[in-house]
Amino acid sequence: MAKHSQNEQMKHAVFVFSEDQLGYKFSETHPFNQKRLVLTIDLLRKMNALSNDSIVPARIATDEELLLAHDQRYIDIVKKASRGEITPEAGESYGIGTEDTPIFENMHEASARLVGGTLTAVDYVMEGKAQHALNLGGGLHHGFRGKASGFCIYNDSSVAISYIKKKYGARVLYIDTDAHHGDGVQWCFYEDPDVCTVSIHETGRYLFPGTGNINERGSGQGYGTSFNFPIDAFTEDESFLEIYRTSMKEIMEFFKPDVILTQNGADAHYLDPLTHLYGTMNIYREIPKIAHELAHEYCDGRWIAVGGGGYDIWRVVPRAWSLLWMEMNNIPLPEGKLPESWLSRWQPESPVRLIETWQDPANMYEAIPRKEEITDKNQQMLNKALYMIRNT
């Protein structure tokens, strides 16, 4: 792994962003809305938590880089779709032109820019120019080698992990806390002993993509390097965090990675319209905190983070992703009210009443009648998973 020169000062963390990343846009009404990047950056700026010298531009991934995780035929189809040269019907077998992943102009360039942003983050960390790097435009974990899926055209994390292995020869731990199973990344490295994938997600019994069962452990030489923690619908903070804290410590001891890549979907929150989990902002304080500690304990601080899901772009995502960046920079996590300047700027545009505080309202939802049953069921699942880890 490369080291930065003595004449070049290492940054603590870099924030990868370019205005061009906003071009990944399916339609005005599609739930995947990159306006959440604008909202998050504006909130961080108004908190004086993000300065221009921390921002580095996202480049476009080359075809050669995309081929690390995608087929040439698929890349060619995406390019044709970008130029309007195929019909939605012709693209459906490749997962494009569907309701989830409709065709839009310059789709290839916009998708390759998101991948390039994650590769930029990788190089900053692996070359020793920064301890941590964040690309909130990334995290498109459902993309497959030859098919788009679940709002994801190219899979930036899969490309980035293959890139890390090829360029830096490192062992990679991928941690996915999106409410949806990180299927595309898992299957890409299912037989790879040098990549460990971990996904904590809502059970596929109720939610897309329907995978991520506890018995999906990897295969061949990669057996025992895939870990899934499918949690029940209506799971709340305490159960979610117990699974995360307990499992990650054991997995780190077991796998001993050189670098951590975390996918930070913000759709496990109660207010998210596409999922059924009952998380609050508390989990978005703790998830990055634990990842940060583990990166320093096991990986000399090497931590790359990407975005992911998150479909309440007004009340949830900006707060959750701001907390992630603040944790990366050792900025004390805020309490109390959000900046009045941010609230007054965005409330007129928001279709819902903004939450004005960093913490969620105390009575955001009614008590769950099945809380004890759900918690017990999740604990049984965790115990079974831990047994598998210890006996691999």
TrEMBL record:
Organism: Planococcus shixiaomingii
InterPro entries for this protein: AcuC, HDACs, His_deacetylse_dom, His_deacetylse_dom_sf, Ureohydrolase_dom_sf
Pathway in which the depicted protein is active: Ketone degradation; acetoin degradation
Keywords linked to the UniProt accession: Acetoin catabolism
Record-stated family: Belongs to the histone deacetylase family.
Histone deacetylase domain: residues covered: 30-325
A Pfam family the protein falls into: Hist_deacetyl
SUPFAM superfamilies cross-referenced by the UniProt entry: Arginase/deacetylase (SSF52768)
Protein's recorded name: Acetoin utilization protein AcuC
